[in-house]
Structures are given as C-alpha cells and as structure tokens.
Amino acid sequence: MKKVLAERGHTIVEEINKADVVIINTCTVRYETEQKMIKRIKYFIAKHRDKKLVVAGCMAKAQPYLVASIAPSASLVSPQNAPHIWMAVEAPGRVLLLSDIRDNTILGYWHKGAVAEIPIQEGCLGNCSFCIVRRARRRLISYPIERIVSLVKDALRKGVVEIRLAGQDTASYGIDIYGKPALPKLLSTLKEIKGTFMIRIGMMNPDTLLPIIDELIDAINNDDRIYRFLHIPLQSGSNSVLKVMRRKYTVEDYIYIVKLLRRKIPEISIATDIIVGHPGERDEDFAATLRILEMLEPDRIHVAGYTLRPNTAAAAMEQVPTNIKKKRLAQIMKLVEEIGLRKHRTYLGKTVEVFTVERGRGITARTRNYIPVVINEHIVNVGKWIHVRINDATFFDLRGTIL
Q: Which end of the chain is less crowded, N or C, counting CB atoms within 10 A of the terminal residue's CB?
C-alpha cells in the first residue's frame, strides 16, 4: 500500500495530526487482536473525525459488518485490494473494495533498519476449524520468483542484511502459479544473488512441507546464507484434536519431520506453535501435547490459548471452560520456559559466530540457527559475522560480549 501510494504522489507521514487520510491495516487472527483493532478504530473516530478513515486488511474482509457498525463512514479495503488502496484514499466518499482477486504482479515489502519482510505468498490450502484468516485470504496466492528476486536485490541496495521470506504457509509457495511447490527453486535462485546477507524462511505447515522436505534440506545445506531454522506449527500433540482442528497431518508425521531435519541439518533449530484449549481437547489430549514437547524439545514454542472466532467451524463446537484453559496455559508455559532455558544454557561459556542484524541500545545478532544474541556494545555495524562469548541465557535469547 505504501509503495502504490508513493508512486501516485502521496506522502506517508509519521504523525497522525499531519495526515489527511488514515489507513488502519487490521489483523483479526485472535480475539485479543480483534479487540485491539476495535479500540484503535474507536480512538480514531473519537479524536480525528475531521480525517478520512480507511480500514484495510483481514478485519475489513472477514468482518466488514463489525467494522461498519463501529465506523459507518470508513472505506473498507480487503487484503487482495491492497494494490487499489489509492481508490479509497482519493475517492471523495466511502469506497468498498472487498473482492477476492489479487494482482500478484504488484508486490511491495516492509523493512525496518536492516531487516526486510518480503512476502512470497499469502493464503493457504487448508481449512482449519479455528482459523478466521481463511475468510480473509481464501486463496493461495504466490508471487513470481523473478519479482521476489527483484525485491531482494532492491532491499540489499538499501542496506538490508536480513531477508525474511514471509507467508502463511511458505511450503505451499508456487503451487498456484507453477503447478507444483517451488520454495526450493526460489531458494536456489536467491543463492545466485551476491552479497553478505542472511535469509530466514517463514512459517510452513507440516503437510505441505512433507512433499518437498528432501529438496528443502538440500537447498538449506547448499547455501550458508540461509538460517538453519524452520517454523513448523504442531498445534496439538493429540491426533484426535488435530482431526477436530482439520489439520492435514498426524503427530507421527510431525515427529518424522523433526527427526529427519535434525539428522540431515544437525544444527537446525525448530520453532512451533501450540493452541491450548481448542474445542475437543480433553485432559489426556493436553497431556499428549506436553509429552511431545518434552520429547522433541522445540527450540522455540509459541503458545496461544484458543479464542473463539466468528464464522469458524470451531465456534459452533462445545468450548473448553475458561478456568481449565487458564490452568493448562500456566502449565504449558512453565514447560516452554524450562525447555528454552535448558537448551540455551548449553551455550554458556562458549564462543559462537553470530551475524549482526539490528542496532538499538546494543546490538542484536543471530546465530546461524537463528537464536537471538543480545550484545551490549556498539562497536560493530550490522551485516557482520563476529565471534561472541556467551555469558548469560534466558529461555528466549542469549547474552554475550564481543571477542
């Protein structure tokens, strides 16, 4: 949206008081997120009635009537219509752009400092019972390899040193435009770009990863500029809950994937997602999730309590009581911190090579397997490989000093 508006002569300002039009780009993946979006829209209406409001993103598409009830005069722009944001900005009155059609030849990217998020695809091939995003991004949309390569080169010219290939399910990349998964091909093409930078591959589902896992392993092993890191959501350690969730893999599939990756890429770190309290989750199902986490010890575990989302299959199911959900969340978070701390403490006293990516109060660097290392010094620029001695560890990151 920024790219399109800038090309039409509009100026993006940092302060709302200087703006003629305000665009709120919304997310609605969880109930708490939805409430933040609503609060922001209501704040705008109360404080800035003189300015035009455009509500874009997933809430505009998945919950247009909710948005309209809060902000009746606001224009609505679906994710697929981001390239047409100028119509809503320039129109004299209210505009509704809510179609499902996306022009995949138009692609922008976001970068903050030396890190760039470059979308390679959006949407997915699943239909999970808990997911409202499916209502906002119904189709798999991949962006052509040559377009992604062009954006990566542009980002590098602007001083970016870490490229994050983003998407809802990066393993499904290319199926819609090439007739088969093309993530390994994209990675091999990016390998041809010269320069000192690192690539992080975004989240992927186990069922779409399985058909390309051997090719993906080869692509990662053949390029030192790809972090040895993959984000693969498990969601539940119980096959019965996975079935209720409409996930297209089994716990056994997931175990196979993790063990294969660790055997073929020994230094790889695995991040995963867990939903606690999904409808149908019994005590024994939750216990199974704890057992799988204890067995596999993922390097990073993102935990979320299930929240009911409107117009999803899970919303019509019998819900797990809130008190039980809270108890399970407290229990699993304790395990998450124990696993993270146990794994990170193995680095204490060691010298590791890290890649500097962000500057703030100090420097944030990454190990080759994407573990963040905080360095309280400013004597080195981003985009450098340096050696650091690890002095401290939390369940989330490492702390070190430059040698």
A: C
